[in-house]
Amino acid sequence: VLALHVDSAWRGLKDVGGIRGTFARESPGRRSGPWAVAVTVPLLLVTMLPSPLARMGLVPGYFDPSTFPVAATQKARAAGLTGRIYNEFTWGGYLLFAWPEQKVFIDGQTDFYGEELTRTHISIQGLYPGWRDLMKKWDISLVIMPTGSSLVHELARDPAWRVWHCDRTATILHREQTAVPAPVDPDSAEARLKTCSSDS
Question: N- to C-terminal Cα distance for the chain?
Answer without folding.
Answer: 43
